[in-house]
Amino acid sequence: MECGSVSEAARRLNVSQPSVSKHLSLLESRVGLSLFLRTGNRLIPNSEAVALHRQIEQVYSGLARLDGFMKDLSQHRHGEVQIAAMPLIAHRWLPEVVAPLLKRYPEVSASFPVRSSNWVEKWVAAGRADLGIAMSGNMNGVTAETLMDLPMVAVMADTHPLAGSGPLEEGDLAGQSLITLSTFDYSPTFFEDMLRPLLRESGRRIQTFTTYVACELARQGLGIALVDALTAMNFQQEGSGLRVRQLVETRSIRIALLSAANWPRSALADQFMVQVREQSLLTMGRIERMLNAPTMGVDGIGMGIPAAHSPRRR
Fold first, then answer.
1. Residue 167, Cβ neighbours under 10 Å: how many?
2. How far is it, in rounded angstroms, from Cα 135 to Cα 228?
3. C-alpha–C-alpha distance, residues 239 and 237, integer Å
4. Rounded CA gap, 28 and 192, in Å?
5. How many other β-carbons are positioned within 10 Å of the β-carbon of residue 165?
6. What is the pLDDT of residues 18-74, one digit of tens each?
7. 222-246: per-residue pLDDT in tens?
8. The CATH classification of domain 150-252+296-306, taken from the options 3.40.190.10, 1.10.1040.10, 3.30.420.40, 3.10.110.10
9. Which of 10, 86, 109, 132 is deepest in the core (most CB within 10 A)?
C-alpha cells in the first residue's frame, strides 16, 4: 500500500521479495479476494484493500499507544496511588512530601483520605490504601516501619506567664488551663495515658480533636496546648504570637509508615515510600534543631533547651 511494489516493500522490510509475495498471497487467500491489481511491477490497491488498510492502521496506532503507555508505566508517569493518613500528618506535612513526586509525574492520580490511625491501619490491611501514615497498633496484615518519634511540647501565647525559657517541669503546669487532644485518633485513652501526670494538677481543661485547633486556642490566650513538636514547628512563622517549651519528662508520639503485608505494592507506591522516608529524616532533624536552638519559640524567640533533653533521632 505504501510502496506500490513487492520489491520496494521487501527492501523496506529487509526481507526477500519471494517472502513478501508469499505473505500477500496468503492474506488474499484468507480474505477470499484479490486486493491488488498487478500491472507489471506495480501493485494498485482496490477498494477492499483500501478499506482493510484503514482497519490495520487503527490496530497499529493502538499498539503504538500501548507501547508508549507501557514505557510511561515503567517511568511512573501513569498510575494511581492512595495514601491514608492521620490528621496530624495529613494537614501540612504529607502535602509537602508528595508534592515533588506529583509534579514530576503529572499523569499520576492520587487520593489522600484523612482518618483516625485505627481506620488507616484497617484500610491498609484490607488493601484499600497503598500506604498509611499513622500511629501503629500492630494489626495483623500490616507492616509498620517507624518514621518519626514526635515529642510532646507545650505551646502558649507569648504573653502567657509561663512563656519563659527552659523546659517545663510537671509542677509548673499545676493550676494552669490546659488544651489537650481528645479521641481524634487511635485509642480513646492514648493521650489521657500519656499526659495523666500533667493533667492531675491542672486547672480548666479544654479538649479538641486536632492539634491545629489546639494551637489556635493557645494563641487566643485560653491556656497551654499540649501538642506534638511537628505541629509546633509548623506554626513557626514570624509574628505567630506563640511560644514553645519542651517538657522535662519526654513523651512522644510514634508515627509509622504502614503497608499491607499480604498485598503486593506497585512500583509507584515504592517511589512514594522512598520520598516519605527521606522527608521523615529531614523533619526529625528540623525538630531536633528547633528543640535545641539557643532560642526556641514559634515566633523565633527562644528557650535555651539543654542538649540532654533533645529527642533521640531515629
1. 21
2. 13
3. 6
4. 82
5. 15
6. 999 899 899 888 888 888 888 888 888 888 888 888 888 777 766 766 665 666 555
7. 999 988 999 888 886 545 788 888 8
8. 3.40.190.10
9. 132
CB-based burial, 185-210: b 16+ in 10 Å, e otherwise: bbeeebbeebbeebeeebeeebebeb
Residue entry with cell 485505627 = 118
Is pTM beyond 0.85? Reply is no
Give the CA dihedral 302, 304, 310, 313, nearest 10 degrees: 50
Residue of 239, 225, 227, 242 whose CA lies nearest to 297? 242
Question: Taking the CA of residue 279 as centre, how many other CA atoms within 13 Å lie in the half-sphere pointing to its CB?
Answer: 20
Which amino acid does the sequence have at 221? Answer: G
Whether residue 105 contacts residue 80, with contact meaning beta carbons closer than 8 Å, is answered with no
Residue 225 has a CB neighbour count (10 Å cut-off) of 30
Q: How is residue 175 written as a grid cell?
A: 493550676
